[in-house]
Amino acid sequence: MATKKNFELGDLVWAKMKNYPFWPAQIVNPPVANEKAPLDAAKGLPKKKPSTSRKNQHHVLFFGTKNCAWILHENIVPHSEEMLNKEIKKKSGSYVKAVKDIIKASVGEDSVKVINHLDLLKSATQRIVKKLLNSGHNVSVWNRTPENCQECVTAGAQQFSTPADVVCNCDIIFCCVSGSEAVKSIVFENCGILDGLEKSEPGSKGYIELTSMGPVTLLEIYASITGKGGKYLEAPISASLDELVGEGLSVIPVAGNRQLLIDCLSCFHAIAKQICFMNCEVGTASKMNLLHSILKDFTLAALAESMALLEGGKHSHLPFSNFLPLSQMASPFILQKCQAMMNNNL
After folding, report:
1. What is the predicted pLDDT for the residue at 231?
2. Structure pTM?
3. One-letter-per-residue 3-state SS of the chain
4. pLDDT, position 122
5. Structure confidence at residue 242 (pLDDT)
6. pLDDT value at residue 115
7. What is the mean pLDDT of the chain?
């Protein structure tokens, strides 16, 4: 379990607090200090503003509990399969939910010209590949563990041994992995994406990044890809595992090279119901994706609070569940989550 030198906003991690095991979490923005600090009633002096950054610490959101805390850098490790497989003596309901949440958040794949690290997401990856194959696309796959491609190959995909080989043999390359470090490895490593672009005619290859990552890494990857003559699109996926293995993604935000989007629209339509093109400025789609996630989280928190108030007042959920579909809040998302909470399945 090695610690990482630098963490970026949005990175998936495992963080440890005193008396608790390493817990699934995500690096998030720290609380914002008020411009005007309140007066200390005892001394008549302004109180110190809450710190928005702390040396050698990161502000994290713990999955499962939704609590936030400042954690020392040395007590944080990157999300990995090793951490998922780590055994702990007692697994509470919150811990089990936290593990499920970080798996959903990682949404890493390794096919269609798509690259995956977590075996737990293998079924979702295979579903995406099959959707592309069923819609008439020629699909090539690569995985660090070659046998993980077997089902995709059986379905009709062609397997290559390196990311560079994928680039050389495919016009459009989709990359979706578990986070920033995984993307860097695939792009910059020997026989990686950049090596493949160097062997290709400038302007002939399109690279589509499905991984959600921080702005620093995003722009670094963008500059590297375009610097080697590749066309670039960001299309960060933020979806539940149910969406990936079910009917498909509801919507994917996209920003970057407009012509590349036009060239691969049929691919997007095979895996998502709708595409929302933001603009040509790389970074916009990730920002919109983050804002959407914040809105969704606040909505879920408000719904959970409403259910808790019902339980605290010893009221049945039934009247509320009957009223909600008739109100202005009657969206499929809210109704589905309400039912899940009633079934204790969220």
Report:
1. 97
2. 0.62
3. CCCCCCCCCCCEEEECCCCCCCEEEEECCCCCCCCCCCEECCCCEECCCCCCCCCCEEEEEECCCCCEEEEEHHHEEECCHHHHHCCCCCCCHHHHHHHHHHHHHHCCCCCCCCCCCCHHHHHHHHHHHHHHHHCCCCCEECCCCHHHHHHHHHHCCEECCCHHHHHHHCCEEEECCCCHHHHHHHHHCCCCHHHHHHCCCCCCCEEEECCCCCHHHHHHHHHHHHHCCCEEEECCCCCCHHHHHCCCEEEEEEEECHHHHHHCHHHHHHHEEEEEECCCCCCHHHHHHHHHHHHHHHHHHHHHHHHHHHHHCCCCHHHHHHHHHHCCCCCHHHHHHHHHHHCCCC
4. 62
5. 52
6. 38
7. 80
Helices 215-227 and 180-188: angle between axes, nearest 10 degrees = 20
User: pLDDT digits over 317-345, tens only?
Assistant: 788 888 888 888 888 888 888 887 777 54
